[in-house]
């Protein structure tokens, strides 16, 4: 099993109890960046996931595709969760860079927060959808 296989298995079975294993997959000064967070270090990365479990219900990742090249990989995924009784699915991708020991040193998540989350939320969803329409190319 490669370091990427092990990491993806960990993500697909992630629970609050398995968060203690973060240092088995991330280097001590690893960076994790997504549309909402930019943190460094395994303690901060663990706190980020603790926050995910504290603020969402039944969060889980489904891995879709992967491309590996040397010490880096790109993985596409779905993130499923519930928030205030509504279920959501976010489609995204992660660029991962590994050190010589196979630990993640840089993890960058790419996903469209407006499309995948904001426009689906009550209250702000309508204005976000309107704003997206204003910037979209008009059909001919």
UniProtKB/TrEMBL annotation:
SUPFAM superfamilies from the UniProt entry: NTF2-like
SnoaL-like domain location: 9-107
Pfam families according to UniProt: SnoaL_2
Domain of life according to the entry: Bacteria
The organism of origin for this protein: Andreprevotia lacus DSM 23236
Organism ancestry: Bacteria, Pseudomonadati, Pseudomonadota, Betaproteobacteria, Neisseriales
InterPro entries: NTF2-like_dom_sf, SnoaL-like
Protein name: SnoaL-like domain-containing protein
């Amino acid at each position: 099993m490669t370091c990427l296989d092990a990491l993806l298995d960990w993500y697909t079975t992630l629970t609050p109890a398995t968060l203690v294993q973060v240092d088995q997959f991330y280097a001590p000064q690893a960076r994790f960046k997504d549309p909402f967070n930019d943190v460094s270090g395994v303690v901060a990365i663990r706190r980020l996931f603790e926050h995910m479990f504290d603020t969402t219900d039944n969060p889980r990742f489904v891995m879709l595709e992967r491309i590996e090249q040397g010490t880096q990989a790109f993985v596409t995924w779905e993130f499923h969760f519930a928030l205030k009784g509504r279920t959501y699915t976010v489609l995204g991708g992660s660029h991962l860079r590994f050190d010589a020991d196979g630990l993640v040193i840089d993890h960058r998540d790419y996903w469209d927060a407006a499309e995948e989350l904001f426009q689906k939320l009550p209250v702000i969803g309508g204005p976000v959808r309107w704003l997206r329409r204003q910037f979209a190319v008009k059909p001919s």
